[in-house]
Queue: 2 jobs
Job 1
Amino acid sequence: MKRRNFITVLGTTVLAAPVLGSLTSAAAEQKTFSGHVFPELGYAFNALEPYIDARTMELHYGKHHRGYYDKFMAAAESANLLKTPMPEIFAQVSKYSETIRNNGGGYYNHLLFWENMTPQKSEISSALKAAIVKDFGSYEEFVRQFSTAAKTQFGSGWAWLSVDRNKKLFVSSTPNQDNPLMDIVAQRGVPLLALDVWEHAYYLHYQNRRPDYVDNFWNIINWQVVDSRYQKALG
């Protein structure tokens, strides 16, 4: 499989948003934003095996993610949002249609998901680990809370590690394609780590064993990306 390069225009737009001010102010000031881009993967479909199989990756990326993107783009064009940064859209997503909310979330959430996984072993930085210990009590407690959020999310959804405007890390889960940037969620923040727990993300390989999929996710996290998001969110 030919190596793919990951386009991170949208990722760097949201991750530059400081948590001390508005979650959208910095995003609105970005001068390099050039529209909503469908990314190429940074690794082959089979690169995450045995934890995520090639067929799941191919269908997840090429069918599901692409479908969200195409539907979002059609709706964004009608709503005159083609040049509006995703954080700005999410900050007032309650004002937009369900099509914008669901497909915009599906498009954007997957951008984060693909990028925060890696086929190479990745170690968490000392700075991020220290912040996790400070806010959760221990790294193990963070893993427990995140895994529980992912395993117990009823139906389709996502588990998140995010940082709020007070620079505090927190774990949450959201249904469907919602995310912590949206104005409709209970706890808002800048997402650092995303885990997709829709059945299409794991069912071909794990069937109904979502807990096994969640446990194996810890083997493929790209901690360098997570740390980079954290540092940018802190400003």
Note: The domain at 126-234 is CATH 3.55.40.20 (minor pseudopilin epsh fold).
Job 2
Amino acid sequence: MKKLICIALSAALALCLAACGGTEKQEAGAALSGAVSTDGSTSMEKVIGGLGEMFMETNSGITFTYNPTGSGSGIKAVQEGRCDIGLASRSLKAEEAASGLTETVLAYDGIAVIVNPENPVSDLDVATIAKIYTSEITNWSEVGGNDAEIVLIGREAGSGTRDGFESITGTEDACQYRQELTSTGDVITAVSQNPGAIGYASVASVKDTVKALTVAGVAPSNETILDGSYVIQRPFVLVTKAEGSLSAAAQAFFDYALSADAHEIITAAGVVPAN
């Protein structure tokens, strides 16, 4: 009798373990679900939009949102708990980091300074570029070029590329644009059609209809952007709280965005993956 009871208990225990193991396997393989909210930099719209779309494609139970409010607003949204991940096209300021936030660089955005192919000028440093865009220098002959007026082409107010260019060159609210255009393509076209023009555009968008200048002797490329030797660049940053943890869905997106699987989408957006 005792032997029969032992056999029965052993069988029951085996069934229980099998059931528990099956439950754990099912939970481990359960589809990811929930919401991921991001908020911040308008300059990061293309790269974050692409990553969000792909993440939702591979995780049908996920809802991904992006609120383009600007870097400062995105950082504040994380501080106040109004989003999972903040987006900034600059590094955190000391006081922001001290408030309990941390940054993770997703990618680097390089901005090429472009001129017409007929222009003999091939290299300028940042200080000279700033003087050109603030009209302290107005003729190409002053920087080794032809005796011709410099025609300043740029993006419209609110453009992320313009914000990045002016921040890096220290020309915020001081540029004397002849034309303010609404797309990178328009800037490239305008410069290609005017021998005296100078403009700026994301490195990935530059075509052979214009010439990208070297800056202090360094050509813009994925390699020089990544190693920091090309200085007209800025980081695209994911901002999170230093304490506490992300939801499972937000953590999964965060990990995906920083993985090798995301490199193709990041590169297609015209920026250089940070890792």
Note: Confidence is low (pLDDT under 50) at residues 1-29.
